[in-house]
Amino acid sequence: MKSYILTFILLFIMSGVSLADDTQSNSRESSENKTERTEIRRGNKEYKSNNYVGSEIDYRKALDSNPSSLTATYNLGNSLYKQGKYSDAIKEYEKVVMSETDDKKLSEAWHNLGNSYFMEKNLPKSIEAYKNSLRINPKDDEARYNLRMAQLLLEQNQQDQQQQQEQNKEKQNKDQQQQQQQQQQNKEQQNKDKNQ
């Protein structure tokens, strides 16, 4: 039953990653900015085609032309997440949550950061990230659901750990009793041998 619930949770969490689109338009934009936008668009096309390695390359090219691009950073995080590179995705999302000022984008970045921590099995950090997402966007039902699932899983893990500790303690007590019995038997045998 536990594995069924975990599979359901993972499927739900895996679906919660969305791209940021760089649709700013300015007739005076620099060639660096044009390169950045072109690479982001290419990356988005690759991402939508499920070519996450290709999208990663394009987003990195966009960051080469503009290292402070939050759109490229966020989308790179998504691409890394989809490739199962959760610790790398975490680094990218953390950059976004430190600098993003748009509440919608910030909420999404916290949400995806929570998903990445969840996949890394870092439930306390996952829970905190989901809470941060919900503080910004209390109407995010996915974040609320993921938060509750992470909390339940953390509680279950803590109960399992406590049960394991109790079992280890019982085994340790039993081993100690057996050792004492063996020492007592050895002592009795020595006394018996001594008397003969």
Question: How would you characterize the overall build of this protein?
Answer:
Helices cover 81% and strands 0% of the residues. It is built from 8 helices and no strands. The model is unreliable at 23-28 (pLDDT under 50).
Give the helix tally: 8
Approximate shape: elongated
Mean pLDDT score: 86
Order of helix and strand elements from N to C terminus:
HHHHHHHH
Terminal residue distance:
63 Å
Low-confidence stretches: 23-28
Helical fraction equals over 70%
Number of distinct beta strands? 0
Structural class determined from secondary elements: mainly alpha
Range of strand content: under 5%
Could you tell me the radius of gyration in angstroms? 27 Å
**Main β-sheet description:** none
Set out the fold topology.
Blueprint: H1 2-14, H2 31-48, H3 52-65, H4 70-82, H5 86-99, H6 103-119, H7 123-136, H8 141-195
Helix pairs in contact: 1-8, 2-3, 2-4, 3-4, 4-5, 5-6, 6-7, 6-8, 7-8
In short:
The protein has 196 residues and is mostly helical. The protein is 81% helix and 0% strand. It has helices at 2-14, 31-48, 52-65, 70-82, 86-99, 103-119, 123-136, 141-195.
Quick tags:
single chain, 196 residues, mainly alpha, 81% helix, elongated
